[in-house]
Design goal:
Blueprint (H helix, E strand, L loop, with lengths): L2 H4 L18 H4 L5 H19 L8 H19 L6 H19 L3 H20 L11 H25 L2 H7 L4 H30 L1 H10 L4 H27 L19 H37 L3 H29 L5 H36 L3 H23 L8 H19 L1 H14 L17 H7 L5 H16 L11 H15 L18 H8 L3 H12 L1 E2 L2 E2 H4 L6
Helix pairs in contact: 3-4, 3-11, 4-5, 5-6, 6-7, 6-11, 6-16, 7-11, 9-10, 12-14, 13-14, 13-15, 14-15, 15-16, 17-18
Amino acid sequence: MSGDAARGLVPAGVGGVRGVRGEPNAARALRAWQAPATVVAALDLGVLGDVLMRAPGPPALNFLLWTLALAATVTVIARRREPLSREATLLLSAAVFFAAAMVWRDSPALKLLDFACVATMMALLAFRRGEAWVRAAGVARYLWALVASGLSGAFGAFGLVADVDWRRELADMPGVAWRRRALALLRGLAISLPILAVFAMLLSGADAVFSHLLARTFRFDLGVVVSHIVLTGFVAWVTSGYLRQLWAGEPTGVVPTMGGGVRPRLGIVEVGIPLGLLNLLFAAFVVVQVRYFFGGAASVQATAGLTYAEYARQGFFELVVVAALVLPLLLATDALLERRGPGDEWIFRSLALAQLALVFVIMASALQRMRLYQATYGLTELRLYTTAFMCWIAGLSGWLAATVLAGRRRRFAFGALVSGAAAVVALNALDPDALIARVNADRAARGERYDPAYLAVLSGDAVPTLVRRLPALPAPQRCQTARSLGRWWRHRRPQDWRAWNLGSARARAAMGELLRNDIGDPTCVWKTPSRSTSTSEEQGATRTSDEERATRTSDEHEHVNGQPREAAGTSPSR
């Protein structure tokens, strides 16, 4: 009897494990009982995923329920071999929290960020679940954990089949009599099917009611059946590979390196020249920005021939990309630099700190451009999320200076992970779509440029805010906003319980209150026919009168605050 069996970790007499070549001892020690348990758990999660994920609309309550089932599976099966470490438990809890955030907000962009956080936490959990490695790991280890977990989800099921000698395990399992019973059951079903088919056909021909009952009972759509099988199989396949990775741990003993395990190195000359030249380029750009900071709109118009708003719009996103590229550049040069003496380290740190200082000025310029852009054109999702990303990059730059450039590079990756998760939590608390609706509605109340057509692309998170601020808007903007809300409501499908989320529920309640009342403008035609479950009523609800069609054309092509859209300069998608 093995040591693990003696300690009760695996059932006595279970064996037949065949380790895959090249895997560490943790993978070769995968117990035979884990493979069948993983297959059964994956199939259960596949069926549950097929039931939950078929709801129309973006994932919400259904994804939370499935994530809870996965978390329970991980916890229960892990206890049979080795309990999850405290770090792994925190990662699992964080994944469940971000899955719950998808039930909180209705914004698709925010849901995408929440899903990315769930996937990241689960990938890090599966890498080395029994060890506390996340806080001390470097960037390369993090990247390898994400890649390894992704590959395990795609191809891990193949390894699950190879882990166990299934024929030997089935032969050695206690209670072999179940095989005889199973075979007898299959033979009985095979004999029964043709007999039942013959008598069913005869009885159907004898009675029309019975024939109709059989037809209704066994009628099915082959395409629907195939789609169920495909979705269940896909979820089960990915889940089985992920669970196998969870038990096996790190696929390889070390992080893969280039050149047969030899990391390429660069001297201070090869590193210093590009960093120094890049610093000169950044310094020249900063000198120009200082002139525009103090010169204002007159300096921009005299030099570039642009309005201040056009100048801000053209440069912001390019500056965001510049700031985002500096961090991986400095991390790569720090990893590749061969430090032959203390002088090399000093030169590198000086160049890197100078570059970060210049990047901070560039980011300040970008934020200033965005402030001007938003003051002229209003707030949109793209502008808000890009600004949030810029602020996160600024925080990471400071963290890089405090860790990597101070000789504590191992702490950088964990800080980046925590700051990224904190940024997503802050965005959920901020409620971006409601903020966008509030800012733009306040602009309309002040008589500034306002684009109500853009509100139609926002999620349900923005609807309660717009409904509350509707009475404070001027009459033209109030009517246009009401029409946008009406179009949003008309295209909103009836909500399935599996796709329920709090933001959408609040939007439906706010729209129900608005539809029961009036916006205070009898000349504004904005309400749409109510939806119905019947096909004829749905077609009638989507049929618009000549007056409504003319009004919609006016909304889309004429004006914003009484000005032509081209003259107003609005660009909702920018």
